[in-house]
């Protein structure tokens, strides 16, 4: 599939999705959000893809925010619809994908850009990364899940301060806060993400999907995460991957998971 604002490439079981609007610092407009949804959906359904990496083109920005010009004149109802549709189409969609998604954060990840990174299953940052949610400086709040996911990742107090001050933190502070898992150079950012992706891809894709569902359940209202874990754990016993994994262990050989 061809896109106007992104590039999607699969190689050795890894699909890399690159937001490609460098003149706009890869800002998210509505077209880009829709294209990202389609690319993630395609990668999730592609049996060759084991892990998805999302990044931004150029050296300056992962995603520097949303395209403000698209919604500056919206009224109350239009604002609510913007947030609701965006969350459903992209941010919640990514969080609940059955395949792992790694955000390779290069440069600025602000506003919708940080919200995109936080919707991924974990984040790796380059040492020039700057992260923040500056929405209150525009008279609005984060609307793509930022007020929910940031406290989950860094704690309520730190999230309150970051959102209220509209400030930015650098990559090392983000690492200290637990907002990113690793910090590396710009040159090594994608290679490090690929190294982690290859480690993931050696394991059972069926079990990984089950783990994603179980972990996410802990953060959903009205859902008992422990019960979800029990259910997913039990379901694993009915899979070919479980049979292969346990047989390989007992036979002292490397497992060759069929992904079923």
Tell me what you see in this structure.
By secondary structure, the chain is α/β, with parallel strands linked by helices. It folds into 2 domains: 196 residues, 2-enoyl-CoA Hydratase, Chain A, domain 1; 46 residues. It is 47% helix and 17% strand. It is built from 10 helices and 10 strands. Helix 8 packs antiparallel against helix 9. It is globular and about 60 Å long. 38% of the residues are buried.
**Low-pLDDT regions:** none
Number of DSSP helices? 10
What kind of sheet is the major sheet?
6 strands, mixed
Fraction of helical residues: 40-55%
Task: Please supply descriptive tags for the structure shown above.
single chain, 260 residues, alpha/beta, 2-enoyl-CoA Hydratase, Chain A, domain 1, 6-stranded mixed β-sheet, 4-stranded mixed β-sheet, 10 helices, globular
Question: Topology, please?
Answer:
Layout: E1 6-11, E2 14-19, H1 30-45, E3 51-56, E4 61-63, H2 76-95, E5 101-105, E6 108-110, H3 112-119, E7 122-126, E8 130-132, H4 146-154, H5 156-165, E9 168-170, H6 171-177, E10 182-184, H7 186-201, H8 205-217, H9 225-236, H10 240-250
Parallel strand pairs: 2-3, 3-5, 4-6, 5-7, 6-8, 7-10
Antiparallel strand pairs: 1-2, 8-9
Helix pairs in contact: 1-2, 3-4, 4-5, 8-9
